[in-house]
Structures are given as C-alpha cells and as structure tokens.
Specification:
Length: 507
C-alpha cells in the first residue's frame, strides 16, 4: 500500500511528537487493525506521564513565541498546510478509509473538509475583530480585543479521525494558540500522517517546536488533558458519556470545555415533500459512514399519508446498496469500526424486537469472502415508536427508525423528544411548514435544515448542538471566539480622572 509510505507511516511508529521531533513514549503500544480486512496496518507508541509532561512543557514554550507572530503570518502557515493537504489528499483519504472503514469518497471528502477549513482560517486571520464603543466619560475610548488562550487540548473520535482535529487546530493556530492533540486510539495512524504533513510546513516556515503536539495513547491521556491546569481549553468530540466525564473534570478546575457529543438526528417528511430528494437524503444520512456519524440520520418521522410510499422507496434503495471494501468506489457502505461496534449493533436489533418494533428491512452480520474482518453489517430499517428506549439512545450503526405522524406539531414534538440536539431536517415544499420548523417553537437542535439531510455540514457555519450534544460550536461563523480570551480596554486621554456612574471621590 503505497499511500502508507507516502504519508511516512512505518510498521512501528513513535507515538508522541512536538512537531518535527518524535518520541517513543513508555505507554502501552497501540495496534491499528483495519476493519476493512482485519489486518494489522502498523503499531504506534503511546505517551507515558513523563513524555506527556515534556510535550506540554514544549507547547508552553512555543506559545510564548507563537502568540507574538502577527495573525496574518500565522494564517500564511495555515495556508501552506492547506496546500500540502491538497498534495496529499489522495493518499490521506485512502488511509482514512482503510483505517476507519468509511467509503473512499467519504475519506477524500474528509480531507477536502480539512482543506476548506484551512481556507476559512486564513481569511479569519485578518478578521479577528473586536468592538469599539462610546464611553460615558469625556475623552475616554473603550474597546474590546481578543487574545489567544494558550494551549488548546483536542480529543477526537475515530469516525472523523482527521477533520475534527483540523476544525480546532487551524482556527486555534491563527488565533495564536498552540494545540495538543489526543486522537482516538482506534485511528492513531491517520493522526500521525497529519502531524508529518504539518511538521513539513512548520520546518520550512520556522514555526516553533511545540505549536503542534501529538500525544497518542488511551483513556489515561485524555484524563491528563482534562485535568491539566496548564490547558485552558479542552475540545472533546465523542460520546455523551465521555463528554460528561471530560466536562466535569475541566469544570472542577474552572477551565473551558468545547464539547461535540452524541446525536439522535431526525428527518421529518411531510405530505408536501419532494420524495425524490427526501429518499436520497435519508438513505445517505442513514448509511453514510456505516451510520457512524454524529450527524447520522437515525429517525425518519413520516406523515401518515406518504408513509407507505416512503417505505416502498426506501426498501428499493436499500436493495441496491453495495456493501464491501470501502476502497472500492463501487461500494456505498463499508464496515463498522470494530467487533465491539458489531455487538452494539446486534444488541440494538434485539432491543427493537423486545420493545415491539418490527423490521421493514432486516439487519444482520455479513460473512463470507470479502467480509473476513467480521465488521460488516446490513443497514436496516425498523418500524418503531419515538418513545422506545432504544430509539432514545444513539447507536453508532446503520439502523434507521421509521415513525409515523399526523400533524406537524406532533412531528416536531417527536423530533425534539430525545436527549440529544445536534442536527435535524424537514422535507417540505410548503413555506409555512419550513418556517414553523425553523422558528423558536420548532427544532431544538443546533443545526436545522430544509430539504437537505442531517449530515454533510459545510465549514462556513458554526457546527454543534444542544442538550446532551454538549453545546459547543466549531468550524465557521464566529467560532474562533471559543479559542481566545476577551479583554475590555478603556483609555483615558484627558488630564482629568472622571469615575464611571458619576461617582465623586475627591482627595
């Protein structure tokens, strides 16, 4: 596999890096097995406490220099990273696909998302703006400015092994922060490849060692990051359970956390929907990345008048899905990440049956030639009720729940009646229905779409959700403010010292 060599992936890789320098670390080595064929790709070292502390110390030293680089100059570094990602898009996309299991198109799409965020961050580097406001005191000027925070800790999940890092790192870097990245232990090689790409640019441009730190490892490394008072912001992406643990730990030291957690996303299909668009959006949303996206479509809330038509079309679409090696462009669906994910998938199917649901499209584990890894499952469709306990929880697998509704008010109530609040959509050609869905009394999610699906967000808009999704916002819009600290300044250019609120204090 030439793409591994092109990305500097070796059979045995060190697990800790401060940029151009790599360290082995004394933590338990990580082995990356591909869910595509079950084969060992390579191993990597892991941080122990000593190498972790060395890396954090290097990051602190780098911040003292990096924060003084002009923001447009930092933006130029990010621009060059974007160019390097363009040059490595084919190879990095293949590695993401092979290590994680998503289709090759999605692997390339993830790298393109990284490129896009670089472009966005470069523009931001010249627009890190504050406000100027009028003072109540004569000959005074008030304004706000933004300064970098320091070290940003990034904990990412396996399902987007490189893009989520870039959402945080590229913006944090133009803001003047330095980053310490703890990738998923299930996809360490994709992270190592990204570090090599960034380090090549950093070396050419004289970026201080420690601006980009990589610390591979297990749960203990994430716990060190969350508890570390030297790290003012921890951005964590993963399950709600993980996010609650990270958020609690960070809060006890009065640090900041940016949490992107679980989703239980729904598409409402009204009787006024364009069903061609609705079916296409629902199928990709439900089976893309084998159902392992936080924005995966998990619930399809369908008006009773079009329910049978929607179900018929879905059955036909699912019958034409190709499941297999994600590096084969002819396949739509790849494997789940590992056998534990398969176990969770099967448990969810049992829970549907126990609750009284039925399957319009049956699930199951695939076996035989091409499926030797044991991680390939059938995307399935269950007819269910929104109040089933299993429907209320996120299962990271291609299981789509069909739910009937009679009125739009009932559909919106179903949409909102889950603990999570990430992404949502409505399919309708009726303007009133669309606007009702987008109103304050409509979807309670951080993302609400009309006539597009729940997954595939663009980087220009702030990404994140409410409730148990964590409340964080990454990527576009004014999300850069999460990586900086706000400072209010008042300048007196008079010979007098008037006090605010007209207070008199004569001495």
């Amino acid at each position: 596999m030439e793409f591994l060599k092109h990305l500097s992936i070796q059979p045995h890789n060190p697990g800790v890096s401060t940029g151009t320098k790599w360290f082995e670390g004394a933590g338990a080595r990580l082995s990356s097995y591909s869910p595509v064929d079950g084969k060992l790709i390579a191993t990597t070292g892991a941080a122990d406490r000593e190498t972790y502390d060395q890396a954090i110390a290097q990051a602190r030293q780098a911040f003292a220099v990096w924060r003084n680089w002009p923001a447009p100059r930092r933006g130029e570094v990010v621009r060059r990273i974007g160019e390097s990602l363009r040059a490595h898009k084919d190879d990095l996309g293949k590695l993401v696909s092979y290590e994680m299991g998503k289709s090759l198109q999605e692997g390339w799409g993830e790298v393109q998302e990284m490129i896009d965020i670089c472009d966005l961050a470069v523009g931001m580097s010249r627009q890190l703006h504050g406000l100027t406001m009028h003072s109540e005191r004569a000959a005074h000027r008030m304004y706000e400015q933004w300064h970098p925070l320091g070290i940003v800790g990034i904990i990412s999940a396996f399902n987007f092994p490189v893009a989520v890092w870039s959402w945080n790192a590229m913006i944090a870097w133009v803001c003047g922060d330095v980053c310490v990245w703890k990738p998923s232990e299930k996809t360490p090689l994709s992270a190592i490849a990204c570090q090599h790409i960034a380090a090549g640019v950093f070396k050419e441009m004289g970026v201080p060692e420690g601006v980009s730190v990589l610390v591979n490892g297990g749960l203990d490394v994430g716990q060190w990051l969350a508890a570390d008072t030297r790290i003012p912001l921890v951005s964590a992406t993963g399950s709600t359970r993980m996010g609650k643990a990270v958020g609690t730990t960070v809060a006890t030291r009065l640090g900041r956390s940016l949490l992107e957690l679980g989703g239980n996303n729904a598409i409402i299909i009204t009787e006024n929907a364009d069903l061609d668009i609705a079916i296409r959006a629902a199928v990709f949303g439900a089976v893309g990345t084998a159902g392992q996206r936080c924005t995966t479509t998990r619930r399809l809330i369908v008006h009773e008048n079009v329910y049978d038509a929607v179900l018929s079309r879905l059955r036909n679409a699912y019958a034409h899905l190709h499941i297999g090696d994600p590096l084969d462009p002819a396949n739509h669906v790849g494997p789940l990440i590992d056998k534990d994910a398969v176990t969770n998938y099967l448990s969810a199917l049992d829970a549907v049956r126990a609750a009284g649901g039925s399957f319009a499209v049956e699930g199951g584990v695939l076996s035989g030639p091409g499926y030797e890894s044991g991680c390939y499952v059938k995307p399935c469709i269950a007819e269910a009720r929104n109040d089933f306990d299993i429907v209320q929880h996120e299962t990271f697998a291609p299981i789509l729940y069909l739910i009937r509704f009679k009125t739009l008010e009932e559909a919106i109530a179903f949409q909102n009646d889950v603990p999570q609040g990430l992404s949502s959509s409505i399919m309708t050609l009726n303007l009133r229905e669309a606007e009702r869905f987008l109103s304050a009394a409509g979807s309670d999610c951080g993302i609400a779409n009309v006539n597009i699906g729940t997954s595939g967000a663009e980087i220009g808009g702030a990404f994140g959700g409410e409730k148990e999704t964590g409340g964080g916002r990454e990527s576009g819009s004014d999300a850069w403010k999460a990586y900086m600290r706000r400072q209010t300044n008042t300048i007196n250019y008079d010979t007098q010292l008037p006090l605010a609120q007209g207070i008199k204090f004569d001495i």
